[in-house]
Amino acid sequence: MEESEASGAVDVRAREFTLRQRMALFLISWVGYLTVRVIGSTLRYRVSLEDPAIDLSDLHKLICPFWHRCVLPSTYFFRNRGFAVMTSRSFDGEYIARIIERFGFKAVRGSSSRGGASALLQLHDIANNGGIAAFTIDGPRGPRYVAKPGPILLAKNTGAAILPFYVGLENPWVLKSWDALMIPKPFSRALIRVGKKIYVPQNANEDVMGEKLAEMQRELEEVKDFAEAEVAN
Fold first, then answer.
1. CB under 8 Å, gap of 24 or more: what pairs does 5-8 form?
2. Fewest CB within 10 angstroms: 23, 126, 191, 196, which?
3. What are the residues facing 134 on neighbouring strands?
C-alpha cells in the first residue's frame, strides 16, 4: 500500500472520533502498550500442546480463535509473528488495535456488528496467502464464552486450519467487565494451551458448518479449562 493510501486510511479512522476521544486514544494506547510490555516481559510462560506435532515456531495458514479475556498475555507472547487480528471499529476496538499494532500485529478493523464483511475479506486474503488470522472470538461485546461463526466460514473458503488456544494466568487481576478481562500480575506464571486443529471441508453444508462451530466451541472451552486448572496448581 502506498504511504498516501495508508495515511488516508488513518485519517478516515481518526475523523470517526472527537478531539477528546483522539487524545484519550493516544494516551490509553501508549499506557496500554507500556503496561503489556513491562508486565509481559516478567511473565513465566509455558506452552502445553494438545497435539505434540504442532510447532509454534513454524505457524502459517491458520485461523486462531481465543477468548477475549486473555488478550493481554496473548499479545505479548505472540508479538512480532505477523498475526492479523480482527478488532472492532468502536472506541474500545481502536485503542486495542493501536496497542497490538505496536507489538507487530496487523489490526483488521471490523466486527460482527460493523464492517464485518470487509474485515472477513481482508482476513480471507491473509489466510489464503499463508498468513495467520486471529479472532477474539466472543468479542467485541460478548456474550462471554460464546464463539461466533466467522472462523468456520473463513476456514471453509480458504482451507486454513482452525487452531484454538487460551492463556491461563496465575492469580490475575480480573476486571468487572463483560469479558472478565485478566491483567497479569508481574512475575506470575502463564500457561498457553494450544488445542487441536479443526478443518472445515470446502463443500461443507450448513449442517456440517454447525457441527464444526460446535467443535470449535468445545475446543475453546477445553483449552481454557485445562490452562486455568494447570496454572492454578
1. none
2. 23
3. 64, 85
Residue 216 to residues 146, 150, 227, Cα–Cα distance (Å): 10, 11, 17
End-to-end Cα separation, the chain, in angstroms: 48
In 3D, which of 196, 167, 163, 202 has the Cα closest to residue 181?
Answer: 167
H helix runs in 103-149, sequence order? 116-128
DSSP 3-state of 160: coil
Give me the number of domains the chain comprises: 1
Edge-to-edge strands, sheet with 165-169: 44-49, 189-194, 165-169
* Residue pLDDT, tens place only, 156-214: 999 999 999 999 999 999 999 999 999 999 999 999 999 999 999 999 999 999 999 99
